[in-house]
Write a structure and sequence with these properties.
The protein is mostly beta strands. The chain has helices at about 5-30, 35-40, 210-215; strands at about 45, 55, 70, 75, 90, 100-105, 110-115, 140-145, 180-190, 190-195, 200-205, 235, 245-250, 275-280, 290-295, 300-305, 310-315, 315-320, 330-340, 345-350, 355-360, 370, 375-390, 390-395, 400, 405, 415-420, 425-435. Strands 1, 3, 4, 6, 9, 10, 11 and 13 form an eight-stranded antiparallel beta sheet that branches. Strands 14, 17, 18, 20, 23, 24, 25 and 28 form an eight-stranded antiparallel beta sheet that branches. Strands 16-15-19-27-21-22-26 form a seven-stranded antiparallel beta sheet, with no helix packed on it.
């Protein structure tokens, strides 16, 4: 019995040694692939030792003093969580289209971050999404990374593992703060899933009426790129709080045939269609349209969340009326569903009052191409605007239309839009967009 007190320190030392060895073994296994994972095509996006293959959003390198590597983890120190701060979102150099992405994440008390995808780096926007937003951060889908308890007042679709601000996670089990959680994102064709600790908790279908309805009622209604299938990088979000990521693994998938989007073939009678272009008859959805007003102060078109133009869609016909006042001499109805870049043909039926139909530069600046003096009556007319090898053409039915080049370059990226004077009203239907493959 007298020796027992001396036994406890030895057991403690032994237990500590075993714990250290166990932790060391886990650390050794982190950021590696099993033979089975290698055979299945999984790739490591982080080797545990360097930021090779990553860069800070909008830059060609990782900003000095931002993300650090410690104990096999990518760690972001606390900061202000803004693009002009000391951190910044960390983005993969590589882009992916259909994939499974697995990762482990850990936050401290009140921690907040996210894994972002389905975005295009460098794509500018006219609406701010948070105080201090400079437009230099990703806007797309986000797997929310969060300490839920201090954020209990958040909407349910803004808690951990949600498709942020869009889809609420269901049936999740979140591990305590300070422990690693396992996240998983699946993008398979149009099907998207979020997993947490081995369980699927959220999913949606890109382009579905339900998702479009959700987006149209969210803050993302001011940004048409959200929910659009595209090749994408993966971004680890800087939200100002310390966060750690490890075991970042990705496997590319072939899109499921059932998930492939369906598009209508171009009209066979169209004399301008070509085998090198793909066409899509666009369903009329309010979420695809925006209203821009001319700002004298900014010397550019700016997007307005206020109802500067009354827009209604019924039975496949969009009705619009310019309800601006004298401070806003012009407003344009912008189709933001497709960014026109390279060769394109876009056409739509319209009737009513219309100043012009235009190609407006994507940044809202002075670059534009205006197709002037379209008929203004109660008859349906087909307006067409095209660019082929840098040359623009426009017509109403088969008649050429006067084109005014407002500094529009031959390779300008822009949006198809209708310009209305205050009080003017029009209707649109049958929008068809053809773009070069």
């Amino acid at each position: 019995m007298p020796r027992l007190p001396f036994l406890f320190p030895r057991l403690a030392v032994l237990a500590g040694t075993l714990l250290f060895q166990s932790v060391a073994a886990l650390a050794a296994d982190a950021n590696t692939r099993t033979p089975q994972e290698q055979a299945a095509g999984w790739k490591l996006l982080f080797d545990g030792r360097s930021t090779a293959g990553w860069h800070t959003y909008g830059k060609k390198h990782v900003t000095a003093g931002s993300w650090k590597i410690k104990d096999g983890c990518l760690i972001l120190p606390p900061g202000n969580g803004r693009p002009n701060g000391t951190g910044g979102d960390l983005v993969t150099n590589a882009m992916f289209t259909n994939f499974e992405f697995e990762f482990e994440w850990r936050v401290g008390p009140v921690g907040n971050s996210g894994v972002e995808y389905l975005f295009t780096e460098g794509e500018k926007r006219t609406a701010n999404f948070y105080p201090g937003d400079t437009g230099d951060s990703p806007v797309g889908f986000e797997y929310q990374v969060l300490d839920d308890a201090p954020h209990a007042n958040n909407a349910a679709n803004r808690l951990a593992a949600s498709i942020y601000s869009l889809v609420t996670p269901v049936g999740k089990t979140l591990r305590p703060v300070g422990e690693f959680n396992q996240g998983r994102i699946v993008v398979d064709g149009n099907h998207v899933e979020h997993w947490l600790n081995g369980r699927k908790v959220a999913e949606c279908e890109l382009g579905s009426p339900e998702l479009q309805r959700i987006i149209a009622s969210s803050k993302y209604k001011y940004y048409p790129g959200v929910g659009v299938k595209r090749a994408t990088s993966i971004a680890l979000q800087d939200h100002g709080a310390e966060v750690a990521y490890r075991n970042l693994k990705l496997r590319e998938l072939r899109a499921s045939a059932s998930s492939a989007p369906t598009i209508a073939a171009p009209p066979t009678s169209s004399p301008t269609s070509s085998p090198s272009m793909t066409a899509s008859k666009v369903p009329m959805q309010a979420a695809d349209w925006r209203v821009w007003c001319w700002s004298k102060a900014d010397n550019r078109w700016v997007e307005h969340p206020l109802d500067k133009m009354t827009v209604q869609i019924q039975d496949g016909v969009l009705s619009a009326r310019n309800t601006t006042h004298s401070n806003w001499p012009r407003a344009i109805l912008v189709y933001r569903g497709t960014l026109l870049d390279g060769d394109f043909i876009v056409s739509a039926d319209y009737r009513g009052q219309l100043e012009s139909f235009d190609l407006q530069s994507a940044d809202g600046g002075n670059q534009r191409l205006s197709c002037l003096n379209p008929p203004q009556d109660n008859q349906w007319h087909t307006a067409l605007l095209a660019r082929k090898q840098g040359q623009y053409t426009a017509r109403i039915e088969e008649a050429p239309v006067q084109v005014q080049n407002g500094k529009a370059s031959s390779g300008m990226k822009g949006y198809f839009c209708f310009k209305l004077r205050p009080g003017e009203a029009m209707e649109v239907r049958g929008l068809v967009v053809q773009t070069a493959r």
